[in-house]
Design goal:
By secondary structure, the chain is mainly beta. The protein is built from two helices and 20 strands.
Amino acid sequence: MKKAVVIKSIVVALILFKATTGVVTAQYDAMFTQYMFNEMFINPAYAGYKDALSITALQRQQWVGFDGRPVTTSVSIHAPVFRNTMGVGLSFLTEKIGVTTRTLLYASYAYRVKVSSKGKLNFGLMGGIHLRNEKLSSLSLTEQGDPNFSTNLRNVVTPNFGFGILYTTDKFYAGLSIPRLIDDEISTSADGVTVQNLGFRLKKFHYYLTVGRIFTISENFKLKPQMLVKAVYNAPIEFDVNLNALIKERLWLGASYRSGADMSLIVGVQILPQFLFSYSYDYSLTKIRKFNSGSHEIALNYLFSFKGKKISNPRYF
């Protein structure tokens, strides 16, 4: 198997390993420490949950100082419709890892059912496209003229869709979802690019479980534990555990642990009742910490008043 000599990141090395076999697997999900601000990308049933027009932007700079590192940007917008019985939304994500650039665009729909005086059960569907580019010809190789690296992947488009359910109250939520149901494998050749083997593969589904609750300790102090669990066939179960404290409805302070990977600190400021700014810093627990100065992430969320309903309190989830 031919290998590249000069690679820009560990992730690029993985891409090259796939490319030398003639197939690049496109099915993998972007990672965010502050996933709680991007829940609709994980679970479409989240659309419209905040009972307001919500716009969220996230930007993640992973492994700063490491050449070819992942850089991910996500923007989402969603709102309730039809007297809060449904929710609709759009999600956009772009990610650059080494020579690979991915762009994902999804539309989400949720149907909301009131199941108790305090709880709602939401059912969600999402559908969209993946756009992929790879500059394979920019890599330096031990053997020149290798056809596996002579052709760049340009604007390869594949469809995808997913579904999820979400139970919510004012102080608790729990969700289960499979956001991407289609596994798309891309084959490369010296003559061009073809997409092959689009289809359902249960063994490659990413299952997401999310749960969170707000605890009122005093009038000026609240605690919000949250957890995300991701399961993939034939791989260890991964989980993120977060604990955030809300002080005087203004300041969020928290910590997060990603299984076998990172410890994180999170600081958020509720600038206005409807406007939140949050920052997180990840410290790697693996050997890769020797080659980077950590990961940084910024999240912004703004809630617009909806149909005359005034937003007077921060949204906890």
